[in-house]
Amino acid sequence: MHETAVQVPSAREPIDAMQRARWELRAMAGRLRTMEATLVDERRRSEKLRRERDRLRDGRSLLQRWFPAWSRTKSPAPAVEGAPACLYVVIGLEFEPLREFVQTLRQRVRIEPGHRPVVLTDCSSFALLRDFGVLLEYLPDRETWERHRPDRSWEDVLSERLSRLYRDHGTVRTVFVNRAHPPTLSELLR
């Protein structure tokens, strides 16, 4: 296939309708190719996330691959009933960093089973993390809340929600997670 180069005329040169139509058609074709490539990348990413979700549902974590003996035993309960609860307030974190943080909490529970994590998040995709063995509580983000309920202050709702979580779960410790630097496993174990 032979393509002829179409020069984009400067603002001073007159453009005939046919030349302009060719240029716009090529520009649109370029945008479509870019969108197709993005779609392919998103489909691959989506499939990868589905496989990871299914792998985690089956209880085969990365540690179990490294230590095959662990895969023969059933995973310990993620939280011991009656253990002291620790509330992690994770506001403003996108899904991927939130998923990594929840996985880190899950590792902490495996190391210290007497720890009962409760995560309060404003990430609307939190439901995808329910199988990680960490209790997740949802509070709409400030923008969503103010759009739907301008009559009530988001700060008041956050305060009420924290009070209720303290009471309902018997929280003994609260950690406000810095969204720019979520804690690592070693930091959580301190």
Automatic annotation (TrEMBL):
<keyword id="KW-0175">Coiled coil</keyword>
<feature type="coiled-coil region">
    <location>
        <begin position="32"/>
        <end position="59"/>
    </location>
</feature>
<protein>
    <submittedName>
        <fullName>Uncharacterized protein</fullName>
    </submittedName>
</protein>
